[in-house]
Amino acid sequence: MTKLLDTKTREKLINYLNSRFGIEKDFFRDYLFTISGHSVSIISQSRETRKIIEQLLYRNYVNGFGIELFSNFKDYTPSSLGFGLFKAGEIMHNSVTFSREQANDYFKGKDISSKDAIKINTLSSGYIICIFNSQIIGTANFDKQSQMIKPNLSFVNTKIK
Amino acid sequence: MSEVYLPKEFMDKYKSILGEEESEKFFESCKTRLTKSLIMNTLKGEDTSFFREQGIEIEQTKFLEKAYFIKSEVSGLGNTIEQNIGLFQMQEISSMLPAFVLNPRETDVILDLTAAPGNKTGILAQIMNNKGLIIANDVDKDRLKTLKFTLKRLGVTNTVITCQDGCKFDLGLRFDKILLDAPCSCEGMVRKKADSLKGWSTRDVSGKAELQKKLIEKSFSLLKIGGTLVYSTCTLSPEENEEVVDYLLKKNTNAKIEEISIPGLVHDKGIIEFNKKKLNPEIKKAIRIWPHKSDIEGFFICKIKKE
Questions:
Q1: Which of A54, A71, A151, B62, by CA, is between 20 and 30 Å from A35?
Q2: Is position B234 annotated as part of the catalytic site?
Q3: For B212-255, how does the pLDDT look when each residue is reduced to its tens digit (9 = 90+)?
Q4: CATH 2.30.130.10: which residues of chain A?
Q5: How far is A125 from chain B (nearest CA, A)?
Q6: Is A109 an 8 Å CB contact of chain B?
Q7: Mean pLDDT of A67-91
Q8: pLDDT at residue B188, as a whole number
Q9: If DSSP codes are grouped into helix, strand and coil, which group holds residue A154?
């Protein structure tokens, strides 16, 4: 069942996105956050559409909402496709810029060394954002010790599990 | 392209609609390969330099600013990084048109009743600049997975997805605009898939027409007064197109057909006489895209206002 995310968790997630990636808190002003299981999605809202969305949630008619931002909000697992919502210029830290070859490797689920990246924007261990040609292509897990970037793609994550 | 299969009954039907000479041109066009096409995703930018850099020749269409024909013989374009992240969408030109004909505003509440796989919903979201609200519905749960993936890839954030039988759809809401791209016999797809007419029969066409009548009636009932419904199919059978609209007009005196203007697109008017049946002359305002005239996929589009 999908419901509106409580204000406290919403703030927590926005703070995380701000501190981890530097995404302005104001970015989320016109979005509603919804939760289904551990998955958190956001949907554009206006005063008029908010009423309709709430009504649909209340009646439990909904199969999907807007765009998924976190596949698991508890450990801040981002949704790689969902993060394509942001513009590369909105990411202030924990991002890496790939060449075409590396970006292709990313989509094949291959691990990539951060030493080979075109540009690194202050990386610390944990989730990072991957950029190619000024576009966000997804997210990855970065290990500072080994300097390796592991794509956060569903088929890669399934293999790990 | 492997040999295209055109059933005899299908050919006889189009001979009676188009006449001997023109029907031959139509059958010949059915046997030619459809030029692939794409549309840029304005939610993520409009930069087409990638194609040039990769040596892919694209040509802007005369009637849709963000749509392009792919002139080079390329394979694997659907697996490029740019496609994976939703910078563009591979799609038939004809099937892009209904969303533009509906012309949603940023404040509208829209219903896309048979939305999967989501390409048209994606275009609606782009026109609306991810504002307003789109209810994207489909009865098939498996197809909803594709719809969700498409919308995520394109970065669509103004959509609620529902899974209801379109004939019984009811959320307790009325809509400003509705897109009904109805399930059909897909005759227009023959240039894409050579054996697509193998299962074609007049019985199938009649069956689809019955479903379409239920869907168009339901759609019209879900419109606000002053709202607009766009009915489209990728088929050319008058039973699934003009006759469906005629059925709606007979049952609803407040349904009015509006003119459609797509400058640069070669198309015919809706048919108003078929199988000795006279249809409402207003149906002339609908558009019928014949592959032998416009060199794109066969299609039918009609715009209906609720007064």
A1: A151
A2: yes
A3: 999 999 999 999 999 999 999 999 999 999 999 999 999 999 99
A4: 88-153
A5: 25
A6: no
A7: 94
A8: 87
A9: helix
